[in-house]
Specification:
Oligomer: single chain
Radius of gyration: 22 Å
Enzyme class: ligase
Pathway: Purine metabolism; IMP biosynthesis via de novo pathway; 5-amino-1-(5-phospho-D-ribosyl)imidazole from N(2)-formyl-N(1)-(5-phospho-D-ribosyl)glycinamide: step 2/2
Strand order of the largest sheet: 10-12-7-13-11-15-14
Number of strands: 15
Keywords: ATP-binding, Cytoplasm, Ligase, Nucleotide-binding, Purine biosynthesis
Catalytic activity: 2-formamido-N(1)-(5-O-phospho-beta-D-ribosyl)acetamidine + ATP = 5-amino-1-(5-phospho-beta-D-ribosyl)imidazole + ADP + phosphate + H(+)
Order of helices and strands: HEEEHHEHEEEHEEHHEHEHHEHEEE
Mean pLDDT: 93
Family: Belongs to the AIR synthase family.
Number of helices: 11
Length: 367
């Protein structure tokens, strides 16, 4: 008589999952303050909201996202301790756009085979980024999917919840003609457009281990540069009354213009001056290697601008000073003006992501 099939024989190792939890739990605990109830390993994370009873009309904000095909770079390099910054940045920085403080986050990792050390590296990165954002990591899930994913393949996703006072919500309702656009530099490609980037690299025949003089490091190291997490800096700026923050936009999929248009009201147009910044080397390299048209670059990659604050005209200097004090590289990107609805200029970006609001126009040439 032959032995029957077991879960382990089917490719799922529950003991490896338990070991991964042991390796990651200290990093997770460091993100958890007294508001987190319970420890690692529960069915659900609990968060004490009693400290927010002071709110007159509290609103909860939520966001979910993943890292996309950037995980292929991490897998190729067998380096997994930074991809968590990409996940956290994609999630919590969407929440701060409305002025909400991200309170807690959960993560989900699907992999072909649970390698405890690899899973622990991923979660440690998530936890470190949560510390930067001031967000508790209250739970997560690691799922082993043999036969669906190869043993070395994985994908990550996450969700976060934040809170904001109703009369403090940032967004289109606050934006007016005369406002100023303040750009915050990205740390690199962040976590959007890697399908294009990877296609360009493959077309050029470049290897990830290739040293690139302009980068001062290998191509793989440059492409794996973690996403900058803006959450705490954006919240600090929003609390500075002198800065007069009216809105934020997180420059993710779709590029600068498409995302900026989402936070503008109808009747205004934001004019972005390309000459106000120099496009970082990694984007120029992608452009040159793939002969990528400027329109495709602008509609896919952040090109060096990771977050934009829309501030009152009288608050621009204070906003720049505050960001400088926080160590954020920032500059004046452009202005918001009244928009003539009869204008049909082809260079206007409007109606993106299903939002019919303001318009954006990019002018000039990059340095």
């Amino acid at each position: 008589m032959t032995d029957g099939l077991t879960y382990a024989a089917a490719g799922v190792d529950t003991e490896a999952g338990d070991k991964a939890v042991e390796l990651m739990k200290d990093a997770v605990r460091r993100t958890q303050g007294p508001a987190v109830i319970g420890g690692v390993g529960g069915f659900a994370g609990l968060y004490d909201l009693s400290a927010f009873q002071r709110y007159r009309k509290p609103l909860l904000a939520t966001s979910t996202d993943g890292v996309g095909t950037k995980v292929a770079i991490a897998q190729a390099l067998d380096k997994h301790d930074t991809i968590g910054f990409d996940l956290v940045g994609m999630v919590v920085d969407d929440i701060v756009v409305v002025g909400a403080e991200p309170l807690f986050m959960t993560d989900y990792i699907a992999t072909g085979k649970v390698v405890p050390e690899r899973v622990a590296d991923i979660v440690r990165g998530i936890a470190q980024a949560c510390e930067v954002a001031g967000t508790a990591l209250v739970g997560g899930e690691t799922a082993e999917h043999p036969g669906l994913l190869a043993p070395d393949e994985y994908d990550v996703a996450g969700a976060a919840t934040g809170i904001v006072e109703a009369d403090s919500v940032l967004g289109p309702e606050r934006v007016r003609a005369g406002d100023v656009l303040i750009a915050m530099a990205s740390s690199g490609i962040h976590s959007n457009g890697y399908s294009l980037v990877r296609a360009v690299i493959k077309h050029a025949g470049w290897e990830l281990g290739r040293h690139v003089e302009e980068f001062g490091r290998t191509l793989g190291e440059e492409l794996l540069e973690p996403t900058k997490v803006y959450a705490s800096d954006c919240l600090a700026l929003a609390r500075d009354e002198a800065a007069q923050v009216h809105a934020y936009t997180h420059v993710t999929g779709g590029g600068l213009a498409a995302n900026l248009a989402r936070v503008l009201p109808e009747g205004v147009v934001a004019t972005v001056d390309r000459s106000s910044w120099e496009v970082p080397a990694v984007f120029r390299t992608v452009r040159d290697l793939g002969a990528v048209p400027r329109g495709d670059l602008e509609n896919t990659l952040n090109l060096g601008v990771g977050m934009v604050a829309v501030v009152g005209a009288d608050g621009a200097d204070a906003a720049l000073a505050r960001l400088a004090a926080l160590g954020v590289d920032a500059w004046t990107l452009g202005t918001v003006d009244e928009h003539d609805p009869s204008s049909t200029s082809e260079d206007l970006v409007v109606g993106t992501k299903g939002v019919h609001a303001g318009a954006v126009r990019l002018v000039g040439d990059y340095r």
